[in-house]
Amino acid sequence: MTSVPYILIGEDDPDDRFLLQSAFEDVSGAYGLQFAENGVELLDFLNAETHKNDEACYPAFILLDLNMPRKDGREVLAELKSTPHFENIPVIIFSTTSNEREMKRCYELGANSYITKPNSFEVLRETMQALYDYWVQPENATVGSDT
């Protein structure tokens, strides 16, 4: 799976995983999705990627829920940003929490962006399109292209 470009999603809710998968199918082209249901699973997956070979394939970005079992999103974010192999992977917090203090805390821990989960599928799809366009498309752009 990971020799193909992918987006890693830390989300424990099966309904949210289904909605995210459906929304990304509309916008992500050849990009795959890798889901982790809790923080421990997400970190284990990334650590396994690091030890597979010299050319570890990391995700284009990580979409991370805050409220997950075993290790919550804040703990995962802090660990990612303090680990040299992972510190440059963009992490987008994706949570129902819209508390400004919580948002500030996540940015202090190193989050690249913070998005409150939308209330409709159409807004979710638009949000996933915006994330894909911002975080994925630039690396696929042709340098020096006039188009």
Describe the structure.
Helices cover 45% and strands 15% of the residues. The N and C termini lie far apart (32 Å). Residues 140-147 have low confidence and may be disordered. The chain has helices at 14-27, 39-52, 73-81, 100-109, 121-135, 137-140, and strands at 6-10, 32-36, 62-64, 91-95, 113-116. It has one domain (6-119): Response regulator (Rossmann fold, 3-Layer(aba) Sandwich). A five-stranded parallel beta sheet has the order 2-1-3-4-5, with helices on both faces. The protein is globular. The protein is an alpha/beta fold and 147 residues long. The chain is built from six helices and five strands; from the N terminus they run βαβαβαβαβαα. Helix 1 links the parallel strand 1 and strand 2. Helix 1 packs across helix 5 and helix 2 (39-52) runs parallel beside helix 3 (73-81).
